[in-house]
Amino acid sequence: MSTMKAVRFHCYGDSGVLVHEEAERPVPGPGQVLVRVAATSFNPVDATIRAGRLTEVFPVELPHVPGLDVAGTVAAFGPGVEGPRVGEAVVAFLPLDADGAAAEYALAPAASLAAAPRTLDLADAAALPAVGLTAWQALFEHAGLRAGQSVLVNGAGGAVGGYAVQLAAAAGARVTATAGARSADRVRGYGAERVAGYLDHTAPLADAVGGPFDAVLNLVATTPEESAALTGLVADGGIAVSATGPLPEDPARGVRAAALFTRSDAATGPRSVWCGAGAGGAHRAGGRGPVTGGGSSAEGDAEGRAAAPDAAPGRRTRRRARVPPPPPFGAPSVLTVRSCVRSPVGARPCARCRSQGWSGGGRRPRR
């Protein structure tokens, strides 16, 4: 039996349930591809799964490996798989009810794989799948956004919002965005024509952001009153798309509403999700650089640490947990994680490290 290093949880809970341990290396079955992981990244849904709040909808088998985003290279593939070659660099958003990519190897449905963008370091590309698919599906599948139309991205300072601004601008849409003061310049650089601060729902929203808009993309938790106000910014016949819960429709004006839940179908999405929109590629304002996932990287953080996750969604930038390849010559391989060096791999960390939120033991075995 081949083994690998992995971050797993054996019971539901906060980041303290994550342990760094030996696990059996998965073997690809029909329609599956084995990916040698270069990196994974944390999304709020990872914490939701780990906390056990999705068990009725997406039950997982314990122990479970988190990490829905993956970037890596094809190591092997199962029967019936055509297309990917061993060694090819790929990215994917993995199914919510299967083991993830916080490990040295991960299984991915062949249909979920897409070629990794060549404009990014492969490890950085792990920050793209979930945010890229979320932004694309919201704007172009649900909202049907076209060149020349107007869109409001409410909550553009986060990873999905930043990606949505770039994709919408690259598609020729007129973009208005809301973001905090620290994010405003960055969001403007992504291509937003107008950037407003956090919306004050005690005042008319149109005074702050203008409008009406052909589409409104909401990425912020809202009260029923705030949701209704956002729908009020949609032009007659337009659509309101929300990732945080449905916004109300307005049948009298022909305003539709859609609740967004991201599908893991990277391979069926347009290439522009990963490499830019349109033949020329999606660029930041002035054509300087490719579409990016936003947020900050956290090389060296454990998934559970980068996922410290007990923070409220929308107030954390995305961070990635890097998983390096095994060292040569049969040396003991370990994930690059923040873990307790006083405890063996797989054991709970000491009290001092637990107080800092670190993951399970990470003491290397002696040679």
TrEMBL record:
<feature type="domain" description="Enoyl reductase (ER)">
    <location>
        <begin position="13"/>
        <end position="291"/>
    </location>
</feature>
<feature type="region of interest" description="Disordered">
    <location>
        <begin position="280"/>
        <end position="367"/>
    </location>
</feature>
<dbReference type="InterPro" id="IPR052733">
    <property type="entry name" value="Chloroplast_QOR"/>
</dbReference>
<feature type="compositionally biased region" description="Gly residues">
    <location>
        <begin position="280"/>
        <end position="297"/>
    </location>
</feature>
<dbReference type="InterPro" id="IPR011032">
    <property type="entry name" value="GroES-like_sf"/>
</dbReference>
<dbReference type="InterPro" id="IPR036291">
    <property type="entry name" value="NAD(P)-bd_dom_sf"/>
</dbReference>
<dbReference type="GO" id="GO:0016491">
    <property type="term" value="F:oxidoreductase activity"/>
</dbReference>
<feature type="compositionally biased region" description="Low complexity">
    <location>
        <begin position="305"/>
        <end position="314"/>
    </location>
</feature>
<dbReference type="InterPro" id="IPR020843">
    <property type="entry name" value="ER"/>
</dbReference>
<protein>
    <submittedName>
        <fullName>NADPH:quinone reductase-like Zn-dependent oxidoreductase</fullName>
    </submittedName>
</protein>
<dbReference type="InterPro" id="IPR013154">
    <property type="entry name" value="ADH-like_N"/>
</dbReference>
<dbReference type="Pfam" id="PF08240">
    <property type="entry name" value="ADH_N"/>
</dbReference>
<feature type="compositionally biased region" description="Gly residues">
    <location>
        <begin position="358"/>
        <end position="367"/>
    </location>
</feature>
